[in-house]
Amino acid sequence: MRDRHCSVVSRRARTRVGIVSALLCVLSGCAVQPHLMPPPAVFKDERLDFARTLPVELRSPRLPVFYATARAPAKAGAPGHYTNALGDGVRLGVADVHLGEPDWSWQDLVASDRTTTVRKLRPGAVQGVEELGMLGDADQRFLAELDAQLRRGRNRELVLYVHGYRVTFDEVTVQMGSFAHYLGHGTMVTFQWPTGLNFWNYVTDCPRAERHIPDIERLIALLAKSSAETINVMAYSCGSPLLAAALVRLRNRHSAQGHADLVTHYRLGNVIFVASDVDLKTFAREHVRPSLDLAQQLIVYVSRNDRALGFSSLVAGASRLGKPDIDDLTPRELDRLAADPRLQVVDVSDVRGVHEMGGGMKGHGYWYANDWISTDVTLSLRHPIPPQRRCLVRKPGTRAVWRIPDDYPACVADRLLAAFPELRRSR
Predict the structure, then answer these.
(1) What is the pLDDT, as a whole number, of residue 360?
(2) What is the pTM (predicted TM-score) of this model?
(3) Among candidates 279, 205, 219, 225, which has minimal Cα distance to 247?
(4) Contact 167, 137 (CB under 8 A)
(5) For residue 255, what are the CA distances in angstroms to 168, 215, 245, 294?
(6) CA pair distance 147, 164, nearest whole angstrom
């Protein structure tokens, strides 16, 4: 009915309605309908068939997303499963996520992967949650559920994601459910902290979230006790300083141990920061070394077109990691950062296509809205692969900055077919 109604409204009127709706959304906060992220570009290559490698028993539009949340539970009969208010501790559980329309089959979901674009997003829903208990008390139950999921598929890697602000529990869970789908029903864990849905919540919610840094530290230590072969961790926007500080605390637990022992103990593959709202100087001086001590690689995605981080830089009076001004660093600091090939800076400023979705601030949501960039993020959430093997090329005039080339989708598909011939689509 909505589409038919809109068809009789003039283009000018629709534009006015859209502007007013967007403004109201920014000013008052809007509950966003949970949706899948658009498929990464590599899923649209006619030569590739990722679904055929998935065990038959996992071929379903439903999958689990694990969570640790400091949000308060929603009251019985209220919408959603957890609120935007602070709860009484960190709760562990598993969400049952359905991807796509309510009546979709596995075949419907896979078919949509080849045709969906950012202009026509697919819905998703959290069908229910099973709360296992509090962090500390329910650790063993949580690990047992994680290990059971790891045994079900061929992907033995685990992913931990720390979100930014202005998102609901269900929104984050469905979005990460779509990542789990692209990772072959991979084991996905979210750490969810309470945040409001108004733009001005940035001023209060992001600083308040720092109270959860010890919780993230404890969660990573817990995940290291799972059977996962590799654990990849990723943080977005103002979730990034939380993860960065948690990794510093984790490193400080083992002051006498070196990189090899720490990687063996925690099994961290990639530490990934996307559109990160972290002070650049603080990150370079305090966060880089602990992250590199703990993990195989440290990947930072940046964009000079990120307006959200432009606003954050203005408020803070210093550039942010996700939109860096290298003049904030000394030549010695730049030389030190460039000297370690395990630190990768991926500049996505010039990647063709959209860099945000829906009502998001321009240029801030590129890592899930842009199908070329999300392809590299998805690869990085699966394996600690060096940038040149992911088809990235070095940015001219730099030593540690990489970019996505014009032939990127075809290059990635070629590399995947060479490494995994079983992905070739049967005719």
Answers:
(1) 63
(2) 0.92
(3) 219
(4) no
(5) 37, 20, 16, 12
(6) 27
User: What average pLDDT does the chain have?
Assistant: 91
Contact (CB, 8 A) for 227 and 198: no
Q: How would DSSP label each residue in 249-262?
A: HHHHTTTT--HHHH
pLDDT > 90 in the chain, percent: 82
- The DSSP 8-state label assigned to residue 302 in this structure reads E
Q: How confident is the model at residue 79 (pLDDT cuts 50, 70, 90)?
A: confident
Question: Is residue 125 within 8 Å of residue 170, measured between CB atoms?
Answer: yes
CB 123 within 8 A of CB 34: yes
User: Is the pLDDT confidence value at 4 over 80?
Assistant: no
Which tokens is 59 given? 């071929």
Q: In the sheet that 62-73 helps form, which strands lie side by side, from edge to edge?
A: 124-134, 82-99, 62-73, 187-192, 157-162, 230-236, 268-274, 295-302, 343-347, 401-403, 393-394
* Distance from C-alpha of 216 to C-alpha of 231, rounded to nearest angstrom: 14
Per the rule left: phi > 0, alpha: psi between -120 and 50, beta: everything else, 237 is left
CA 286 to chain centre: 23
Place of tokens 């539009």: 61
* Count of other CB atoms within 10 angstroms of residue 169: 25
Separation CA 71–CA 375 (nearest Å): 31
Q: How far apart are CA 203 and CA 348, in angstroms?
A: 27
Amino acid identity, position 30: C
State the Cα–Cα distance between residues 124 and 100, nearest whole angstrom.
5
Q: Look-up: residue for tokens 């202005």?
A: 166
Q: Are 136 and 130 in contact (CB under 8 A)?
A: no
Residue 355: partners with Cβ closer than 8 Å, 6 or more residues away: 303, 305, 348, 362, 363, 364, 365, 366, 369, 370
Distance CA(33)–CA(321), nearest Å, equals 29
Q: Which helix (H) or strand (E) holds 409?
A: helix 408-419
Gap between the Cα atoms of 365 and 354, Å rounded: 9
Determine the Cα–Cα distance for residues 324 and 35; give it in Å rounded to an integer: 30
Rounded Cα gap, residues 244 and 289, in angstroms: 11
Contact 271, 196 (CB under 8 A): no
Give the Cα separation of 234 and 43 in Å (integer): 22
Q: Is the confidence at residue 182, as pLDDT, over 50? A: yes
> How far apart, in whole angstroms, are the C-alpha atoms of residue 300 and residue 354?
19
